[in-house]
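Record type: monomer structure entry
Structure origin: computed from sequence
Chain ID: A
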Amino acid sequence: MRDTIRLKTVILALVLFSLGIGALYYSETSDHEKHPIRRAFWREFATVAIVAGTLHVAFEFMQRREFLHSIDEVQRSVIASIQAMRGEVLSKLTITQQVYDLGLVEVRADANSHDFADLLRTARNLVIVLNDGRTWVSNNAARLRDRFEDSRLETSFFFVHPQSLILPVLARKDGTTEAALSAKIQETVSMLCRMCTQDSLVTVRGHHLYNPHSVFMSDEHVLLTPYFHARTRRTVPLLRFVDRGDGSFFREVGEDLEALILDAEILFLSAALRNKPERPEAGPPAGAA
């Protein structure tokens, strides 16, 4: 492929050179007086043959050189593209592996598009963390009532404590007053109390820290909706994580909610839990630790 001149080019050039030399020899040895035209013809033919052979070799040399140069350019371009693609693929594979290890399995651009019906219906242990929670509880009131009627399902709520020192900041962020926000939290707690039956397993706590996100945690996965910093309301995404073992975000959230109990007070405890003998402190699902 990379031979400068191909064999057939050499053969053709030698043939032309031979013809040219032969014609030149014939023209010089022929009778000048008797065949002047023939002599001139063979002399011109010899010149043409030799020049043609030379030009053929030169043209082939230049053409192949240009062709090989083009091949080299294409090869370099392909190699560069492959290397860039390889780096991009490796980067995506690394990110994919990191996402897998973290346990992230779903992302929704709008948290409001998520339907909590299946979670509220099937999660045996469910921990929910919200600021005041009134809107979410109101929107899911019917589903919560159905859940509370099932004595096999336990639910723990964490809201900002109605007397928390963070209330003035949250009130300013929400464009309301501290008293109004405190009243909303107490109203949410009252709504949950009224939904409960004698068999409901419901705990409501008020904590004295702040919420960087809303949390909905079951035995199998955890849903998070992060908050923005500024006061303007925006659409927030929803992230779903599953348990990938030690180091996964699911485990980290579980440990975080266990620790949150230390900064929280019980605002409401359902009758079934109050009457339960030697009941351990309610917290995140056991599988989250």
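Annotation 1: The mean pLDDT is 82.
Annotation 2: The first strand starts at residue 104 and ends at 108.
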